[in-house]
Design brief:
The chain has a 4-stranded mixed β-sheet. It is an alpha+beta fold and 702 residues long.
Length: 702
């Protein structure tokens, strides 16, 4: 048989097998079961035809000349990454779960190509992304620093739930800059796809440093970081992706700075590190920033120790560093000038307020990476929220235990492994036992809850894992003993996790998890040729699981063309300054009007509007209720003589019961509701679409 034909057949077989597995898993995700309907399986199979073709071509080229293919791809990696990003933006590809909101508003979620819109990601589809849409539609001007839409006006959108705005400080929000110049769907595509590609490329370059330029290992590291469950479940909010990019990229730039002789290039690296530092700070989420900063500081210390003899700073370096620090300081000063009042309000709220944590009591979360592979299919976890339960697949406790045993056995210390082991142990102690009050305070860990610290622990373990694989010698642990240990540990850990919520796991799930963990753990003991296949397998499962978390969709026309939002938009365009309220329709409907630019007093209040609530609570009796970050449900009750505030079912929610007169006192002119008709004596119907109504208060201004 001709060689090219053989390669073609092998490529087709490999691509076909991978596509079939991916199609089956996608069908499971859509069906919410590992036994999907044949119609789902058939539909998924057809969708994966382009994946099959692309995969077959890539495998064929790889088989034709492995070395040349790998070298060419490596040489032009940035051009390839840029081209992929351009294509994805043109195709308007994003991973928002806005389809859930579409269904709430009566539209059909028909823009999803793969995967499933996730209701559990409500902080993205019901809060973060609607706020983004409001920035495009703000009556006072698109991308205003102070929104006239959120909370009914005067809301700082840059500091909290950071949104794109016209300010020089956007230098530290690089992935949101395209919003300022591109239409919504293209800006959204850049935000989602650009961050994933940037994270992958930064992880690859960082991987080259920790693996001593073993490119295959570096690709595996990039896959396991970029598509890790914790990254994908938290992809849109709280700045986790930006933090990881900044950590990895800053170390890559710092490494280049320490080994570069050209003064101009060194100054360029300083600028890059300064932007990374500013971007990290401007994520404004201490619960992750503080523990992840320990990983960053550990990596900086390792780089200084590793390059100590070669570090030679000149006058231009000191001037560049001083200028970079000064510029960052001025940026923070400008932020304080523009957002100082907002910061004061945020830190004095009842919730989240000034958080003080001491950790402890969450050792179980060190092992929730085990059921992560089930989360995209099940979309729930009875023990904890699937987002809270997501992690890096860091193989704790074998990592960091095995690298330590290896170093002791070989009497061969590695600076990076020692540092990461120390950080991992530090984090594990905080998560498991907690710190005394004074220690939590001086280490700043008081800003972070134990479940959030798991992310930093996992990152340290991932670095440790790949450093260990890259540096271990050919004489490894006995494979038979190693596989035996892997099997025993897998069964013990899976049974432990099953014990946390026994009703969640069927026998099939337990078998899947045992097989998956045993395969993953075995790679820590078995090297040689088997290592390559282990890496391919673990990367494939990680990537497949990660890709399935968020939907892959094209555009958001289900929102921009939605009929229910259309009636709000029509009324708002005719009366753009009027205030709105969403009544008798709870979250997420409260954030519907802001998507077309209608100022809404009870849209998610990212910080309290004390002056507004004091209009109907002059004595401040209910401040404990409304002085918080809150989703606000407004219920109309004409029998009331005074407004009533009540704490909601969660800390980030409260209910306000009012009559028409009190709504007018709050400045409300229009009401959007999906809960039936209102009293015609007080409310005039001005628009209707399906089950949704828009009313005008009759006595407004009278």
């Amino acid at each position: 048989m001709d060689t090219k034909v053989k390669r073609g057949l092998l490529a087709a077989v490999f691509a076909g097998a991978a596509s079939l597995i991916a199609a089956y898993y996608n069908a499971c995700v859509v069906a919410g079961s590992y036994r999907p309907a044949m119609s789902d399986l058939f539909s998924s199979g057809l969708k994966f035809l382009p994946v099959f073709i692309i995969s077959a071509v890539i495998v064929f080229l790889y088989l034709s000349d492995r070395v040349r293919f790998a070298d060419t791809l490596f040489k032009y990696r940035y051009a390839v990454a840029g081209a992929v990003l351009v294509v994805l933006v043109i195709l308007k590809v994003n991973a928002s779960s806005l389809g859930v909101f579409e269904r709430f508003l009566g539209s059909f979620d028909d823009e999803v190509v793969f995967g499933l819109s996730r209701g559990v990601r409500s902080d993205e589809w019901a809060v973060f992304t609607p706020m983004l849409l409001s920035q495009y539609e703000d009556p006072s001007g698109a991308f205003s620093y102070m929104s006239s839409v959120l909370r009914g006006g005067g809301t700082d959108v840059f500091l909290e739930y950071g949104q794109p705005a016209w300010t020089i400080l956007m230098l530290f929000r690089p992935f949101q800059i395209p919003y300022l110049f591109l239409p919504l769907e293209y800006g959204l595509a850049f935000f989602w796809c650009g961050r994933l590609i940037a994270l992958f490329m930064c992880a690859f370059e960082f991987g080259r440093i920790i693996t001593k330029d073993r490119r295959g290992l570096s690709v595996a590291f990039a896959v396991m970081i970029s598509f890790a469950p914790v990254v994908q479940w938290w992809f849109a909010i709280n700045g986790l992706v930006e933090m990881l990019i900044c950590i990895l990229l800053s170390i890559v730039l710092f490494n280049k700075f320490l080994n570069e002789q050209n003064k101009k290039m060194r100054l360029l690296y300083i600028v890059g590190i300064m932007i990374c530092a500013g971007t990290y700070v401007f994520t404004f989420y201490p619960a992750w920033q503080v523990p992840l900063a320990y990983v960053l500081l550990g990596l900086i210390a390792w780089q200084i120790m590793d390059n100590f003899g070669r570090i030679k700073l000149g006058l231009s370096d000191y001037i560049g560093i001083a200028a970079a620090v000064a510029l960052l300081g001025l940026s923070l000063l400008l932020l304080f000038v523009k957002s100082g009042d907002t910061l004061t309000l945020l830190t004095n709220t009842v919730y989240p307020g000034k958080r003080f944590e001491v950790g402890g009591g969450r050792a179980d979360q060190l092992f929730t990476y085990i059921p992560d592979v089930l989360f995209p299919v099940k979309d729930f976890y009875p023990y904890t929220n699937v987002c809270e339960g997501s992690m890096f697949f860091d193989m704790f406790p074998l990592i960091p235990l095995i690298p330590v045993i290896y170093m002791v056995m070989k009497k061969k210390a590695d600076k990076l492994m020692i540092i990461m082991t120390g950080i991992s142990a530090f984090m594990a102690a905080y998560i498991t036992f907690g710190f005394p009050h004074f220690l939590a305070k001086i280490t700043l860990m008081s800003h972070s809850m134990a479940p959030r610290v798991v992310v930093a622990s996992g990152l340290a373990d991932m670095i440790l894992l790949f450093r260990y694989i890259a540096t271990r010698e050919k004489s490894k642990f006995n494979p038979v003993i190693g596989i035996g240990i892997a099997g025993i540990v897998s069964v013990i850990l899976v049974l432990y996790v099953r014990g946390l919520c026994p009703d969640y796991y069927s026998k099939l799930f337990v078998a899947i998890l045992c097989a998956w963990c045993m395969f993953a753990f075995a790679g820590l003991f078995v090297g040689g040729r088997a290592e390559k296949y282990w890496l391919i397998g673990i990367c494939f499962v990680t990537a497949l699981t990660g890709i399935s978390v968020n939907p892959i969709r094209s555009g958001v026309k289900g929102i921009t063309k939605n009929a229910s939002l259309g009636i709000i938009e029509t009324v708002h365009d005719a009366d753009p300054e009027a205030l709105w309220a969403v009544c008798d329709s709870a979250f997420p409907f409260i954030n519907a009007p802001i998507m077309v630019g209608a100022p809404t007093i009870n849209s998610t209040n990212i910080y309290p509007n004390m002056d507004r609530w004091h209009l109907i609570d002059e004595e401040g009796r209910y401040e404990e209720v409304y002085n918080r970050y809150a989703h606000i449900d407004i219920e109309i009750d004409e029998s009331l003589t005074e407004a009533d505030f009540a704490v909601g079912v969660t800390q980030d929610r409260f209910t306000l019961r009012v009559n028409a007169g009190q709504l007018i006192k709050l400045g409300v002119k229009y009401i959007f509701t999906g809960n039936g008709e209102l009293d015609p004596d007080s409310y005039e119907l001005v628009a209707k679409s399906g089950a949704f109504y828009v009313y005008r208060l009759k006595n407004f201004g009278g």
